[in-house]
Amino acid sequence: MKISDIPLENRPRERFLKEGPEVLSDAELFALILRTGTLHENVIDMSNRLIKEYGLENIFDCSLKELQRINGIGPNKAMQILAIAELGKRYNKKKVNITKITSPEDIYDFFKDKLTNEKQENFYVLLLNTKNIIIKSELIFKGTLDSSIIHPREIFKLAIKNSASKIILVHNHPSGDSSPSPEDLDITKQLVELGETLGIKVLDHLIIGKGNWWSWRERG
Length: 220
What we know:
By secondary structure, the chain is of the alpha+beta class. The chain has two domains: 3-94, Orthogonal Bundle (DNA polymerase, domain 1); 98-219, Cytidine Deaminase, domain 2, CATH 3.40.140. Helix content is 46%, strand content 15%. The chain has helices at residues 12-19, 26-34, 43-54, 56-59, 64-67, 75-96, 104-115, 152-161, 182-198, 216-219; strands spanning 122-128, 134-142, 166-172, 201-208, 213-215.
């Protein structure tokens, strides 16, 4: 069935204008974004196939290549979808607007949109002043975490350069399980001890999974 064959009052655009976005299905919302289907399939049916293939919760984490596996979705449509996803992440980050760290939950809220769906491990250092106000965050390493790759000298050099009195270590587990590995614990212990020597306190190490986190500070 073509969109033009659907009664006018039942088409996504007209329903949106009359009743708002809340009444539309997930596929109908995607149809408004993608606008056109293919010669043999309308945009609503194509959107339904997209959702069925990846699941709504995973679509915005797909790569351009993965989205283009769906017949009818070329580079432009794939970019439209991922542009919407990126705007959502930026909106959420602005909405949270955390400037002071008071708990592990604050750390999680600051990083969750950036790290939750990353397919590689990302190791960040969050720099704080004496009042736990965020000075800046810095991506230190991307890849599998290894104590031979994480250079304490570079981490504390960054802290000294930015006059940070405290730092927080943050990284993600792409598996979704935030439980620390022996390597995670070794790295944390090494950096905590070095921080004590330098007078720069390692306040916490947060590991972010899928909707969960592990905190060095909370777990002792």
